[in-house]
Design brief:
Low-confidence stretches: none
CATH topology of the largest domain: Aminopeptidase
Largest sheet: 6 strands, mixed
CATH architecture of the largest domain: 3-Layer(aba) Sandwich
Shape: elongated
Number of domains: 2
Order of helices and strands: HHHEHEEEEHEHEEEEHEEEHEEHEHEEH
Length: 418
């Protein structure tokens, strides 16, 4: 069978699987896998395991050890985490891995429909997780089912993993999966909602931190006996706004981004401010948190030192100012070359399927993709959902885009594993 005949058979088969795809997406969205804390994970995994078996994959389910949860997410240790891995082996070629996370953020308010009772209106399937990112998982499954049912001749291994906890950092999901050697792929496509006409070849990193400013407590009627931590915090924050923020925003990545503003490194100060105990007491402790987005070109340790240096300088200028930096969370930036094999192949296939050249950009948000890149895997992000639909009320995915993405995945398998 010629490659063109096989391609046409696969594309036709995916069109025929549209109802199948809609049905499984509806089922997945109806399982409220909300994190925190990690609800209904077992229900989703049981469904996914049987589904992958039905389409012909060898399936393995791994439960993350409780000791690992106690170390990394102690507040959620009583909610088990599961990783589902399906494999289709056809020869001794390379391993192409597809990944999707099955956890979703809480639905919040403002919904016109029940977020966990999906409905289709004008080609849009509405429900929490439809775009971020159960729709991407469905695109993967549909593509593999089409390859199996058309008897596609490939040489290598197709893997699909469904992992938890991306929405809280991915430590007990993809990170554990790779750390423990459950999978060791050569290539990886993460099906996050990049948009069907855009490929994320990397993403910014993140430093979440808290700066705690200490003062001295006193009665508000005799404030001269105390040290007002709030006033000291204001002084430090103003210094950071005046000196650190411009320095951060002067850093610009060489990579293209979805919007021009995204090329800069950024810092958001005061995202959460806490402190004080009573209206008539001089506050002795005030803290404020920040979000620093890190470019792939930046050294992460230097990013931390820049913040520490501003704090030290401020304390030197004012001996009464006592402040400390606490690191709350770190996610390193990640990027692969536009010339990497996975990038070149995926770009060619996307253009073939959608009829236009996809943009190769850097995501401003951090993704589980970083864990694959850190392990030396050629990994990028491409999925059918829209980032504009992530975490919002009335989240939806366009069904036709989901089917187009299945076609892209299937033909990418053919190009890489044939």
């Amino acid at each position: 069978m010629s490659i063109n005949v096989l391609k046409n058979r696969i594309l036709k088969k995916i069109d025929e699987l549209k109802d199948f795809s809609i049905d499984i997406l509806k089922h997945m969205v109806s399982i409220p896998t909300v994190v925190p804390p990690g609800e209904k994970y077992k229900d989703f995994v049981d469904y996914a395991k049987e589904l992958l078996k039905e389409i012909g994959l060898e399936v393995n389910v791994v439960q993350v050890p409780r000791s690992y949860l106690e170390k990394h997410i102690p507040e959620m240790k009583d909610y088990p985490r599961y990783i589902v891995v399906g494999r289709l082996k056809r020869g001794e070629g390379p391993i192409l891995h597809f990944n999707g996370h099955y956890d979703v953020v809480p639905p919040g308010t403002g919904w016109k429909t029940d977020p966990f009772k999906p409905v289709i209106i004008n080609n849009r399937l509405y429900g929490r997780g439809a775009s971020d990112m159960k729709g991407g998982i469905v695109s993967i499954i549909t593509a593999i089912k089409a390859l199996v049912e058309t008897g596609a001749n490939i040489s290598g291994i197709i893997e699909v993993s469904m992992t938890p906890d991306e929405e809280i950092g991915g430590i007990c999901g993809v990170n554990y999966m790779l750390e423990s050697g459950i999978v060791k792929p050569n290539y990886c496509i993460v099906a996050e909602p990049s948009g069907y006409n855009r490929i994320w070849i990397g993403h910014k990193g993140t430093l979440w931190g808290e700066i705690v400013v200490h003062g001295k407590i006193a009665h508000a009627s005799t404030p001269w006996l105390g040290i007002n931590a709030f006033e000291k915090m204001v002084k430090l924050a103003n210094k950071m706004i005046a000196t650190l923020k411009p320095k951060v925003e002067s850093k610009v990545t060489k990579y293209e981004t979805d919007v021009p503003e995204g090329k800069k490194a950024t810092i958001v100060l005061g995202s959460i401010v806490k402190g004080g105990v009573k209206i008539n007491i001089v506050p002795d402790k005030i803290s404020f948190q920040f979000d620093r987005r890190v470019l792939p070109e930046e050294d992460f340790d230097k990013v931390v030192r820049e913040i520490e240096d501003v704090i030290k300088e401020a304390m030197k200028e004012d001996p009464e100012l006592k402040a400390e930096l606490k690191t709350l969370f770190k996610a390193k930036p990640a990027a692969i070359s536009p010339e990497a094999k996975i990038t070149v192949v995926l770009k060619e296939v996307v253009k073939e399927i959608i009829g236009e050249e996809p943009r190769l950009t850097l995501s401003t948000g951090f993704l589980d993709t970083r864990f694959f890149v850190e392990k030396g895997v050629e990994a990028l992000t491409y999925g059918p959902g829209s980032i504009s639909q992530a975490h919002v009320a009335n989240e939806f995915i366009e069904v036709d885009k989901m089917m187009l993405t299945s076609k892209v995945y299937a033909l990418t398998v053919l190009k890489l594993l044939s």
